[in-house]
């Protein structure tokens, strides 16, 4: 298909996307957003420099910000903070990563300049804020799309663009200082390393422009860990390094590099298992779907759990951070499935992992995967909080769970949702769940 667009102005930047209809499956699709900058050379128009993915923030540690972005062709880049050139990257590359270290608690303005021998393009001016003490933490999960929807903005290169951007907008309005996304960012399930990266770009574009102001901290889910994926007659599995799903994750995101050491020949834990201190709160991120394997001819685990290397690492870093007041554990797959009865209930593996968490004095954890909001208490007193209403198709709660004596459901809602985690005036750790109208659907004090 070819479209002709007239009246474009030189040196202006244009955003565009294409929606199209699958006449066989009767489904609307849409591309992610792309950017164009017409540049005149003599009498001919050429493509000027612009951003393929505008800057997205992350945090490497409590006083270091990562700024990442993609450009439409290899070029050099400069970062300006408070009007001063701060970092110069002289390599001509497509994916750019800057890390600003030793930041003090305050507000910072920044902008980017990309350039090559043919063109120079400056970004908008953005800002971010490092709190003095009390962090306001946003949390949501499962932003992947649904190929069965007929909404042309619903399935956009593997991501529910509309809901993802709406939640990021709400978290911006809530003045969140940092946002954790609890896995299944994308649909995945492709063999191509390059196309898997395109789906991540779609996720990043769905978070923009708010991700240029608020650091985002993704945690991997099962759909992310099959991006890319290999397949044979017996199983669907994670490709070996350096083309594993974990390798791609580390290529896309700039996150804390304090992960465990992987076994020889195995995918890296780098940036898919990490912790970060935010004032007197420590967040621990685990990968419940590491080295993903799905068997075709024999039973698969009812719940995928963090492996032994991650458990040893968690024991070690929990001790390392023992002086901190609050410890928050996050991973993708909940121990007890809320939409599929008996997924995890009465499982020996789940029982062992739940007991392990209690032995480390974790009284609660936050997960995604089941597309709803729910808070329940498991049989051993561990509180399970699920927020997976970030755009994936919503699930109902399985009614049989209310009859099960091994858990108690305190609150649940079939709704797109997000969480705010913050300290209240009494220095308690308060969790608030809200829908897209900013109405409170649950609130509790976490201990």
UniProtKB/TrEMBL annotation:
Annotated GO MF terms: acid phosphatase activity
Which residue range or ranges hold the Calcineurin-like phosphoesterase domain? Answer: 136-372
Cross-referenced Pfam families: Metallophos
Ion transport as UniProt keyword: no
UniProt keyword annotations, A-Z = Signal
Q: Which InterPro entries match?
A: Calcineurin-like_PHP (IPR004843), Metallo-depent_PP-like (IPR029052), PAPs-like (IPR039331)
Has the keyword Transcription been applied to this entry? no
Q: Which PANTHER family match?
A: ACID PHOSPHATASE RELATED, PURPLE ACID PHOSPHATASE
Q: What's the protein name?
A: Calcineurin-like phosphoesterase domain-containing protein
Which species?
A: candidate division CPR3 bacterium
Name the lineage.
Bacteria, Bacteria division CPR3
């Amino acid at each position: 298909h070819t479209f002709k667009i007239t009246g474009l102005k030189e040196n202006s930047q244009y955003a565009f996307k294409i929606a199209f209809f699958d006449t066989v499956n009767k489904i609307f699709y849409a591309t992610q957003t792309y950017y164009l900058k017409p540049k005149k050379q003599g009498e001919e128009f050429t493509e000027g420099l612009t951003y393929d993915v505008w800057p997205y923030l992350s945090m490497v540690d409590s006083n270091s910000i990562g700024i990442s972005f993609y450009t439409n062709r290899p070029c050099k880049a400069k970062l300006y903070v408070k009007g001063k050139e701060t970092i110069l990257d002289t390599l001509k590359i497509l994916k750019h990563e800057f890390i600003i270290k030793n930041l003090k608690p305050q507000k910072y303005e920044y902008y980017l300049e990309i350039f090559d021998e043919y063109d120079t393009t400056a970004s908008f001016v953005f800002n971010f804020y490092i709190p003095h003490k009390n962090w306001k933490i946003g949390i949501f999960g499962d932003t992947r799309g649904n190929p069965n929807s007929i909404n042309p903005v619903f399935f956009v290169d593997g991501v529910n663009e509309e809901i993802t951007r709406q939640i990021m907008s709400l978290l911006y309005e809530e003045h969140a200082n940092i946002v954790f996304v609890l896995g299944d960012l994308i649909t995945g399930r492709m063999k191509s390393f390059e196309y898997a990266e395109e789906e991540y770009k779609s996720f990043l574009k769905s978070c923009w422009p708010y991700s240029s102001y608020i650091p985002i901290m993704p945690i991997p889910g099962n759909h992310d860990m099959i991006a890319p994926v290999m397949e044979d007659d017996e199983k669907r599995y994670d490709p070996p390094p350096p083309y594993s799903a974990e390798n791609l994750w580390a290529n896309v995101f700039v996150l804390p590099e304090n992960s465990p050491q992987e076994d020889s020949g195995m995918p890296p834990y780098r940036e898919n298992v990490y912790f970060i201190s935010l004032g007197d709160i420590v967040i621990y991120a685990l990968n419940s779907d590491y080295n993903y394997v799905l068997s075709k001819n024999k039973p698969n685990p009812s719940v995928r759990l963090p492996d032994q290397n991650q458990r040893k690492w968690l024991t070690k870093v929990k001790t390392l951070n023992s002086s901190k007041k609050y410890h928050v554990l996050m991973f993708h797959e909940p121990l007890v499935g809320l939409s599929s009865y008996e997924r995890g209930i009465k499982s020996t593996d789940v029982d062992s992992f739940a007991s392990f968490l209690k032995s480390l004095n974790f009284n609660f954890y936050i997960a995604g995967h089941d597309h709803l909001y729910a808070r329940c208490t498991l049989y051993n007193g561990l509180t399970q909080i699920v927020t997976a209403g970030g755009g994936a198709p919503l699930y109902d709660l399985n009614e049989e769970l209310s009859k099960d004596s091994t858990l108690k459901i305190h609150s649940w809602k079939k709704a797109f949702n997000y969480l705010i985690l913050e300290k209240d005036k009494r220095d308690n750790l308060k969790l608030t769940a809200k829908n897209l109208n900013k109405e409170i659907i649950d609130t509790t004090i976490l201990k």
